[in-house]
Amino acid sequence: MGSKCLEKFLKEGLEDLRSKGLYNQIESLESPNGPIIKINGHDLINLSSNNYLGFATNKRMMDAAKKAVDKYGVGAGAVRTINGTLDIHDELERKIAELKDAEAAIAFQSGFNCNAGAIQAIMDKHDAILSDELNHASIIDGCRLSKAKIIRVNHSDMEDLRQKAKEAKESGLYNKIMVITDGVFSMDGDIAKLPEIVEIAEEFDLITYVDDAHGEGVLGKGKGIVSHFGLEGKVDLEIGTLSKALGVVGGCVTGSKDLIDWLKVRARPFLFSTSLTPGAAAAVIEAINILMESSEAVDKVWKNGDYLKKGLKELGFNIGNSETPITPCIIGDEKTAQKFSARLREEGVYAKSIVFPTVPLGTARVRNMPTADHTKEMLDKALEVYAKVGKELGVIK
Ligand code: PMP
Fold it and tell me: Is 132 in the pocket of ligand 1 (CB under 6 A)?
């Protein structure tokens, strides 16, 4: 018999979520997370993964991982700072820094851990953070962990950022002030206005922090948002994930050598959680080799993204302000968006609906993530299904 108060808490919480239709029933894939996935024996065109470059099943990367497993085993055996740093982790960090044209890099076990660790390692209760209102949950948690004053900034509103930066600076209340933003906003596919952010940061001596989880491997010929805008050396902390375009798992921070030295002694997930597996490290090294050799996969994800966007727009769907392959179809009403996604699924297309609280009320959408591995035939089929379901539910004429 367990605790009665826990039992009551869980029972009531689950019932509440289920009654409101907010309980997310997780489904398992019976296949790799590629352009076609199998669920319950059904093949579906997959428009929901972050596997932008198709690297999750890249043969060269899989071979590199297998070789590393043969050499080092499946686990690193300790946290990085005890004796869980293998030479392959050092090689990975050198590679990441090379890809990003940065002085140095640190690898974490996930992108989430980067934000949970890096913000807290730099900021404390005597500081303030200017945070875009649409920033990712891991940034929000990282900010909270730091105990700094969090100042929400209207989404990509440079007037608002400037005003709030000025007020924070002139108040004299804070030792340090940071501005923090997603690079590519994952629910809309729009890109942060990084050049203006850097300009405002220079004016008010703000620490600049960009989480490029969705831009890495996609923007700047794969190098990410800093390269996309030619801002090398002007952003203090650049965060990336090794789990989306790079196809594996893990996260990274790039910046000055002093910054990385500091994170290696102060970022708590680095200090207190076991290092990336050798197989993951080796696979990411190979992913970066591939990215630096050729832009083929990056070009393909953009080509596919543009094709899908053009098709959806021509059909009359509202794709919002997307500037990247991430393509939302904004439907508005929550129930219609959920029904839309369910009908797509019945017709063989897997694209998830995103509703409140992940996006504001009344802006529910179905989000599409084309990848480099989708063929024109798959995208044409998806568009055909979109047309059918869109008309059926009255979303398009
Ligand atoms: N930052 C952003 C902006 C993200 O979208 C995500 C993934 N959803 C993360 C961080 C976390 O990355 P990971 O999945 O590697 O933990």
Answer: no
Other C-beta atoms closer than 10 Å to the C-beta of 347 total 17
24 versus 143: the higher-pLDDT residue is 143
What letter does residue 274 receive in the DSSP assignment? B
**What pLDDT, on the 0 to 100 scale, is given for residue 15?**
95
- Is the beta carbon of 240 within 6 A of some atom in ligand 1? no
With a 6 Å cutoff on the Cβ, whether 243 touches ligand 1 is yes
Top mutation candidate among 136, 190, 239, 284 for ligand 1, by most atoms within 8 Å of CB: 136
Residue type at position 104: A
Main-chain phi, psi angles of 215, to 5 degrees: -100, -25
| 213 Cβ inside 6 Å of ligand 1 | yes
Residues in a beta bridge with 251: 108, 241
The 8 Å CB, 24+ separation contacts for 149-157 are: 149/173, 149/174, 153/179, 155/185, 156/132, 156/185, 156/190, 156/192, 156/193
Cα dihedral 158, 164, 167, 173 in deg (nearest 10): -140
251 lines ligand 1 (CB under 6 A): yes
Q: How far is the CA of 112 from the centre of ligand 1 (A)?
A: 5
Q: 49 CA to middle of ligand 1, Å?
A: 12
Mind telling me the catalytic residues? 186, 214, 244
Contact 148, 123 (CB under 8 A): yes
Mutate to test the pocket of ligand 1, among 49, 138, 181 (most ligand atoms within 8 A of CB): 138
> Residue 232 — pLDDT band, cuts 50, 70, 90?
very high
> Model pTM?
0.96
Pairwise CA distance, residues 34 & 47, whole Å? 9
Average pLDDT of every residue of the chain? 96
In the β-sheet with 207-211, what is the strand arrangement from edge to edge? 104-108, 251-255, 237-241, 207-211, 177-182, 128-132, 149-153
Answer left, alpha or beta for residue 58, where phi above 0 means left and psi between -120 and 50 means alpha: beta
Asked whether this complex has an ipTM greater than 0.90, the answer is yes
Environment class of 336 (CB within 10 Å of its CB; exposed 0-12, middle 13-18, buried 19+): middle
